[in-house]
C-alpha cells in the first residue's frame, strides 16, 4: 500500500516543488544526451521512403478516429516498405525542416524513445531485428533472427497475435534524455509521451488498412533481452504489433 500511495502522491503533483528546487543537469550546463543512438559501424542501413514522397495515409483524420480500435487479428499480407516508412515517420519521424521536432509531442522536446522493429513480413526487408534512425529516416539492421516471432510471442506472455503480425514496434526508453531536464518527475513525462506515441500509430495504421494493439502486459526481462538493452539505462516500455486487416 505504501508504494501505491507514493504513486498517487506523485500523480497529484506533490513533487513539483521539489523538482523546481533541484539543480538539474540542464541547469548545470551539462551537454544534452544524444537524441538518437548511433547505428553500429558494421550494420547495414536501409533507406526508407522520404516523407515528402509518401502516397499512403491520406484517409481523413475523422475517419481514422472513427475506425480506431485495438486489433488482434491480422491477415497474412505483408506491409509495403512505403507503409512501414509512413508508420515510422508518423510515430517518431522529424517534422519537415526541423532538426529535433518530431511528429509526436514530448515533454521539453526530449523524445526519450528508441523504436526497435521485429520485422516478420515487410516487402523488401529481410526478417529480423531493426532500429529506426529518425534523424536519417533509415533503418539500422541489427540481426537476422529466424525465431524472432516466437520469441516476441513469448516475451508478450503468450499473446499469439504479436508473432502473427507483419511487424512489431518495440519502444524502449532512455530515461536520461528526459531526466537531463526533468529529474525526478521524468517517469511521469515518459509515461505521458508513450501514450502520444502509440496513439499516432493507431491512427496511422487505420489510415492504411492496417491495425495495431498496444501491449503493456509483457515480460520485461525477455523483451529487454530481445532488443539487447541493459534494463537500467534503456528498457522496453511499450510493444505494438502491426498487421494488415481484412
Q: Could you list some keywords that capture this structure?
A:
246 residues; alpha+beta; NADH Oxidase; 7-stranded antiparallel sheet; 7 strands
Question: What is the rounded Rg?
Answer: 18 Å
Separate helix tally: 10
How are the strands ordered across the major sheet?
1-4-3-2-5-7-6
Distance between the termini: 45 Å
Shape: globular
Low-confidence region ranges: none
What is the helical fraction, as a range of percent? Answer: 25-40%
Number of strands: 7
CATH architecture: 3-Layer(aba) Sandwich
| CATH topological fold name | NADH Oxidase
Percent range for β-strand residues: 15-25%
**What would you call the structural class?**
alpha+beta
Can you put this structure into words, describing what you see?
By secondary structure, this protein is of the alpha+beta class. The chain has one domain (2-244): NADH Oxidase, CATH 3.40.109.10. 36% of the residues lie in helices and 17% in strands. A seven-stranded antiparallel sheet has the order 1-4-3-2-5-7-6. Helix 5 runs antiparallel to helix 9 (186-206), helix 6 runs antiparallel to helix 10 (220-227) and helix 8 (176-182) packs across helix 9 (186-206).
Amino acid at each position: 500500500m505504501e508504494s501505491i500511495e507514493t504513486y498517487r502522491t506523485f500523480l497529484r503533483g506533490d513533487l513539483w516543488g521539489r523538482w523546481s528546487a533541484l539543480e538539474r543537469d540542464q541547469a548545470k550546463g551539462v551537454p544534452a544526451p544524444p537524441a538518437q543512438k548511433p547505428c553500429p559501424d558494421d550494420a547495414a542501413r536501409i533507406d526508407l521512403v522520404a516523407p515528402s514522397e509518401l502516397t499512403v495515409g491520406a484517409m481523413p483524420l475523422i475517419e481514422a478516429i472513427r475506425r480506431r480500435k485495438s486489433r488482434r487479428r491480422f491477415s497474412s499480407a505483408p506491409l509495403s516498405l512505403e507503409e512501414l516508412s509512413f508508420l515510422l515517420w508518423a510515430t517518431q519521424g522529424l517534422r519537415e525542416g526541423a532538426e529535433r521536432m518530431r511528429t509526436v509531442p514530448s515533454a521539453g522536446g526530449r523524445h526519450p524513445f528508441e523504436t526497435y522493429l521485429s520485422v516478420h513480413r515487410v516487402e523488401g526487408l529481410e526478417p529480423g531485428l531493426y532500429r529506426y534512425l529518425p534523424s536519417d529516416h533509415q533503418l539500422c539492421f541489427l540481426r537476422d533472427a529466424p525465431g524472432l516471432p516466437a520469441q516476441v510471442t513469448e516475451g508478450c506472455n503468450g499473446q499469439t497475435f504479436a508473432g502473427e503480425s507483419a511487424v512489431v514496434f518495440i519502444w524502449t526508453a532512455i530515461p536520461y534524455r528526459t531526466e537531463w531536464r526533468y529529474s525526478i518527475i521524468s517517469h511521469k513525462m515518459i509515461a505521458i509521451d508513450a501514450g502520444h506515441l502509440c496513439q499516432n500509430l493507431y491512427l496511422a495504421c487505420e489510415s492504411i488498412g492496417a491495425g495495431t494493439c498496444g501491449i503493456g502486459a509483457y515480460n520485461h526481462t525477455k523483451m529487454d533481452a530481445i532488443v539487447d538493452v541493459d534494463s537500467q539505462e534503456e528498457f522496453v516500455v511499450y510493444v505494438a504489433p502491426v498487421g494488415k486487416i481484412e
